[in-house]
Amino acid sequence: MNIKDVMLSLDKFPVVTKDVIFKEVLEEMGNKKLGIACVVDENYKLLGILTDGDIRRKILSIQKPLSSIFIDDCLDHAILSPKTISIDDPIIMAVNLMGENKIWDLPVVENGILKGLLHLHPLVNSLLKSK
Predict the structure, then answer these.
(1) pLDDT of 131
(2) Calpha distance 105→16 (Å, rounded)
(3) What is the pTM of this model?
(4) Are 26 and 95 spatial neighbours (Cβ–Cβ below 8 Å)?
């Protein structure tokens, strides 16, 4: 089993462009019911990610009104060097990377282009079904 066998497709998780405002990213995360959004350029090159935890930490550390954060460009608050995995990598590599970094999601890229998202719950379900 490879990453491409269990990853979420681009339409199943929040993917936004770099010029989207922060409030719209939060809305998209709510709509897709997933605590991560991937920020891409017009060619789907991964530029960064925003997670619920990162957003919470950012809000607590920024010394400006919350309403002004909502209109910032989302890339202003994104993690610009996220952990990623290649579409052809083995599952065990992803599991180890997620465990070492205590993360639930890994953007799946091929030559820097976003192809999907590996989310812990579907991954575990797939592993359990394969036994």
Answers:
(1) 62
(2) 16
(3) 0.90
(4) no
Closest CA relative to residue 3, chosen from 131, 97, 81? 97
Task: Give me the domain span that covers residue 49.
Answer: 3-129
CATH code of the domain covering residue 46: 3.10.580.10
**Residue 115 is inside which H or E element, if any?**
strand 113-119
Instruction: State percent of the chain over pLDDT 90.
Output: 62
Query: Which candidate, 120, 70, 69, places its Cα nearest to that of 98?
Result: 120
What's the whole-number mean pLDDT along residues 82-88?
94
CA dist 92 → 34, 40, 97, 115 (Å): 23, 27, 9, 19
Q: Total structural domains in the chain?
A: 1
pLDDT tier for residue 110 given thresholds of 50, 70 and 90: very high
At CA 87, angle to CA 35 and CA 7, rounded to 5? 40
CA 106 to chain centre: 6
